[in-house]
Amino acid sequence: MTREISVTVNGTVYRKQVPVRLLLVDFIRDVLDLTGTHQGCTYEGVCGACTVQLNGEAVKSCMMLAVQADGQQVTTIEGLARNGVLHPLQKAFKEHHGLQCGFCTSGMIMNAEEFLRTNPRPTEDEIRHALIGNICRCTGYQGIVAAVSAAAEEMSAAGTPAKSGS
Amino acid sequence: MTTVEKGWIGARYTRREDLRLLTGKGQYLADLRVVRDPLVVKFVRSSVAHALIKSIDVSAAAKLPGVVAVLTGADIRDKIRPLPTPSTVPLLPGHYPTHWPLAVERVRFHGEPVAAVVATDKYTAEDAVELVQVEYEDLPPITDPEKALLADSPLVHPDIGTNVMFSMVLTGGLTEAEQAANKARVDSIFATADVVVKERFYGHRCGVMPLETRGAVASFDPEAGLRVWMSTQRPHIDRLVFSELFDIPQNQVQVSAPRDQGGAFGVKAPVYREPIMIVYLTKLLGRPVQWIETREEHLMAVSQERDQIHELELAADKQGRILGLRDRVIADNGDSCEGVFWGFIMPFYGAALVPNAYHIPDCDISITAVATNKSALSPARAFGSLPGRFALDRAIDMLARKVGKDAADVRRMNLITQLPCNIATGVHYDSGNFVGVWDKLVQHIDVPRFRQEQRAARAEGRYIGLGFGVAVHASGVASEALVPMEGQPGYGSATLKMDSSGTVTVFEGDAPQGQGHETTMAQIAAEILGLDPEDVTVRVGDTNNTPFASGTFGARGGSYTASAVAMAAKAIRDKIVKVVAHDHKLEPDPAHFRFEAKSIWHKDRAEALTSMAGVCNRIIMKPLDLPAGADASLEHTAFFEAKEPMMAFSAHAAIVEADPASGEFRILRYISSEDVGRVINPLIVEGQVRGGVVQGLSNAMFEEFIYDENGQQLTSSMENYMLANAADVPNIEILHADTPCEHTPLGTRGMGEGVPGPVPGALCNAICDALEPFGIEIRDLPVRPDRVWALLQAARARAAG
User: Fold this and answer.
1) How many C-beta neighbours within 10 Å does residue B754 have?
2) Domain contains B6
3) Does A136 contact chain B (CB < 8 Å)?
4) What is the dihedral of CA B582, B583, B586, B587, to 10 degrees?
5) Would the N or C end of chain B have less CB density within 10 A of its end CB?
6) What is the domain extent for residue B558?
7) What is the pLDDT of residue B486?
8) Are strands B195-206 and B665-675 parallel, antiparallel or unpaired?
9) Under an 8 A CB cutoff, do A142 and B208 touch?
10) Distance between CA atoms of B709 and B715, rounded to whole angstroms?
11) Is the ipTM of this complex over 0.90?
């Protein structure tokens, strides 16, 4: 059984006929070929590597069907840098060695981006708790936490307007 | 030896890999679009631990639209050569069970592949897997390695006739007579020692679990040969094995590890069943085939290591000086079907490293690896050594209590001070400064001050504690050790090619999975050739354009591969010097020339003689009037072979606060003091240490593969195989010692692999130290509040008499 859906992904409207049981993560990766969104736990909703934003809210795209995103706005890691300018989080992850293999990074950043919109001046403890839905196996989290903290400072200092996920 | 001024090597240079990974442009295996519409493979896995396969009904699955093929063990047993094959079997006296990619006649663990479904898409393949009906005739499950050693135990491999897959005495010598004499000597030391500690420790089954699972994509063309893309640490070994199994000449097999891999930590090193099946299927069906492992499969089939019992004894004098050590190691080897490693290579190596950084000349150590109905042990960071580290470092704290001394002092007294040395198991330690690294750690902590704080806290009813753990771990393994053991080389290799515009490409046959080789190898080549790292592109993991390489594992990169890159860069530099000297009528003494700022300089000239681009263009594109013996080649392949095995050392300390009422504990500080030789990039070294410590903490506190009494694996999802998250772990403080390694051209050592090893010992020692007034001793991993609580209850019951 298939259905036609219309989903806005990173600002582009995609109208596609998809199986109703197709997961959102597979729609993003296999139908739209946006492979920056990863699958680490294969549809268990635990690892967080597939985190994207739905209408600006961080969601695990392996826990949703593509048809549920019909008419909605999705932002993936590919949509975060605008006009070739990296988001402060992307810059800070590089600066603070917040990634090694990079497999968790997209989900980590998509989650952190929403978090910083809701809490622009977090403490270290708040950052650590905000990231519990994203598993990293390489870094020991320290570089990630430092990067989120640095990005928060940069964004606050620059008065970066909170970017909506859409 | 190349001497290099301060420059790119040692610089805190941010990684060249990062930009693509941060913008979603990484190319991991599942992201590659290298073949058109691959068929998708899913495996049907055994739902029971031990059984005869009565029948497999694939008819319903085969009829499902979109299903192309369903194969079982019976279909392939005469079509695929089973393992072991010459290149997948070590040269050690063990048992190497014959096995095929799919179970033949019987299953030996919950999760073993019994059938493969091939379909046009993964959703259909999943549906078809559900339709395959397997009828089993249960056999008694063998889940306890000690019971499996009893004479009346059923056998995992009846054809082998024993459950002992490997056993060895590691001390005394090679002959039984030498070993018996050694044993007698150790026995006499124990008989007369002032103090004996005799304990049984258990390091539980847990592992590494990279965030990217395993996988393979393959295509075959009778003319072009076999092409395999796979998530692997060892593409050249994989090529060898595929060639051997399928009778395809090696030069017709190309294995590529993707440029980006989502971690491995050891688990992507062995030769497993599934990629062999993928290759077979692409040959059989004449179409490209893809398999991406699910997390459930990963947790059922691989990533399981540790799982060792240590019956460990220490003999010491009244001061706490260790005089002798006995250790009987029993490893739960699982079904033992795993090419190259066979489960027991890890505990064997771990047993060889039991004496760790302590001076204990008289040891009696043996290892027995026992087959059970579980997944075979697969390599994990701290390769086989984690349970032994835990056991000895815990035993030393128990010894310290017996002799009434601070555990820090007893450790210091027993550290090895004379290097190089051979430890009792014959393992060679090359160089370093263990005591210096240790002293740095204890000075940083200020142990006397901590003891004051501890007393003050106790007076207030708060219980804080300090614990230590240490590790000597290998920086790669030299051919000298690896060839006799595994029949495989250990050298590092790299090809450097300069082009006519003066930029460099490094070709490396290893397959990094997050270690940052594109950055560190570029730093080395840039430093030696006077370029920027941006001028160096590093290509990894493709057997078609790289020299034979052993792979990325065991901390080989910073020692072996980095040395090969340095040697190749140096060779190209020497050649350029010859041409430049010839062109400028100068003496061709390399010491007179400097490579700096993308140009070549002479000691007597203020101006640069030529730019790198200029001289490369001159040599490659205008090869006229070259000095005698020179040609147009600016390419060099170097092989680095270490004369001595190299070791790195680390000492860890944990400070915790524990609650004697609930058994809960919290890590207040964690400090690592490391000596990794000359550091290529501190950012990357620190990342390796932090990540390794957190893996060790996660292993110690959360992760545990649990099998019930029927051999059912209960932890095949990340919901119940728990990993540490950001809120579970502290920041890690790092101290560097940087004693240059004498055996590499740059003084570097590989590091990273062994980091988790000392963590559980340091953590548990800290918890026991915090709760010292209550008299608990942790002997089993994992350590969790409920277990600490149970120990406290038992101690209170004992005290109440």
Assistant:
1) 27
2) no
3) yes
4) -20
5) C
6) 491-640
7) 85
8) unpaired
9) no
10) 14
11) yes
Q: Quote the pLDDT of residue A160.
A: 62
Percent of chain B exceeding pLDDT 90 equals 94
Same-domain pairing of B619 and B650? no
Same domain, B315 and B422: yes
Q: Nearest CA to CA, how far is B297 from chain A (Å)? A: 10
CB B432 within 8 Å of CB B743: no
Residues 3-42 (A) with a CB less than 8 A from some CB of B: 19, 21-22, 29, 33-42
CA dist B83 and B336 (Å) reads: 12
Give tens-digit pLDDT for B533-567.
999 999 999 999 999 999 999 889 999 999 999 99
Mean pLDDT across chain B: 96
Q: Where are the alpha helices (DSSP H) in B584-628?
A: 612-621
Q: What is the CATH number of the domain that holds B51?
A: 3.90.1170.50
**Domains in chain A, start-ordered, CATH in brackets?**
2-79 (3.10.20.30), 88-158 (1.10.150.120)
Q: pLDDT tens, B662-702?
A: 999 999 999 999 998 999 999 999 999 999 999 999 999 99
- The distance from CA B300 to its chain's CA centroid, rounded to whole angstroms, is 19
Measured in whole angstroms, the distance separating CA B34 from the mean position of its chain's CA atoms is 29
Contact across the interface for B262 and A37, Cβ inside 8 Å: no
Same domain for B246 and B348, yes or no, is no
For residue B615, the domain's CATH number is 3.30.365.10
Strand order in the sheet with B106-107: B106-107, B51-57, B133-138
The answer to whether the CB atoms of A139 and B726 lie below 8 A apart is no
A105 closest CA partner among B25, B694, B521, B207: B25
For residue B4, the model assigns a pLDDT of 42
Say yes or no: A97 contacts chain B, CB-CB below 8 A. yes
Indicate the length of chain A as a whole number. 166
Do residues B578 and B654 share a domain?
A: no
Q: What is the mean pLDDT of residues B255-262?
A: 98
Chain B positions in Cβ-Cβ contact with residue A95 (cut-off 8 Å) = 14
Cross-strand bridge partners of residue B43: B116
Asked whether B609 and B566 are in contact (CB, 8 A), the reply is no
Q: Name residue A148's amino acid.
A: V
Q: Do A94 and B261 touch (CB under 8 A)?
A: no
What's the mean pLDDT in B123-149?
98
Domain boundary residue, one of B593, B608, B640 = B640
Structure confidence by residue, pLDDT tens digits, A147-161: 999 999 999 998 765
Q: Does A80 touch chain B (CB under 8 A)?
A: yes
Q: Given a cut of 50, is residue A166 above it in pLDDT?
A: no
| Model pLDDT for residues B301-324, shown as the tens digit of each residue | 999 999 999 999 999 999 999 999
Q: Is residue B8 in some structural domain?
A: no
Percentage of chain A surpassing pLDDT 90?
Answer: 90
Number of domains comprising chain B: 3
Question: CA-to-CA distance for A155 and A124, rounded, in angstroms?
Answer: 16
